[in-house]
Amino acid sequence: MFSLILLPVVLSGCSLITSKPICPENTKSIEQGIAGYSTNGQPIHYTRIGCGPQTTLVYGAIHGNEPASATLTELLIEKLEQLPDNWFYHHRVIAIPIVNPDGLHANTRANARGVDPNRNFPTQNRINNHQFGMRALSEPESQTLVNITKSFPPDRILSIHQPLACIDHDGPAIQVSRAIARHTDLPICNLGARPGSHGSYAGVERHIPIVTFEMRSQDHLLKPGQIWQLYGKAILAGITYPQAPPDL
Questions:
Q1: In this model, does residue 69 exceed pLDDT 80?
Q2: 3-state SS string for the chain
């Protein structure tokens, strides 16, 4: 049995404030909560697993028409919960399976207002328009990611997507990308930092290693076990680098 440690969480507007997570002695620390709300008011759920010094943010479905990314992130949470106590004391993972629940429900890339949340960050290269938002952080989904990175400052970020079938990276993330690539047949690619993207915001401008893990276009047709077999160890490698990933 796992000990579920619910730490104080306060939602003020779209801002998440949480106390620093601490693993009580001889327990595993798992926290579940709401990081924010979508355009249509759906909760954006997160799970924190572990309380070690190395923090990795992992999220999926910032684009609603990329459902396999949500499945892989949900599988990651299930698998991490099975790890032994000592793993929890060395790592902290913040996992958000569905950043854009309205888009996922509608099978659209954009949110309920027709704005792409992954082009809505405050970056030097952003473009203000109806597709990307008329101003930076106009959308609650992008606000949620910014707020949770302030509450749980990540050492690295794994952003899971479809359908480009490669491993992209922004900021100082090439070594993490190579560690991930050793456990999958997806090649490393260089897509470039897109205007207003999270890669531009976190990787280029804030020097947080961020890997964009692009799954294949038809992966959502696979069974969950098949998805984990294809990509699970690669995602674990991105979390544990420079150590080897566990066998799950």
A1: yes
A2: CCCECCCCEEEECCEEEECCCCCCCCCCCEEEEEEEECCCCCEEEEEEECCCCEEEEEECCCCCCCHHHHHHHHHHHHHHCCCCHHHHCCEEEEEECCCCHHHHHHCCCCCCCCCCHHHCCCCCCCCCECCCECCCCCCHHHHHHHHHHHHCCCCEEEEEECCEEEEEEECCCHHHHHHHHCCCCCCECCCCCCCCCHHHHHHHCCCCCEEEEEEECCHHHCCHHHHHHHHHHHHHHHHHCCCCCCCC
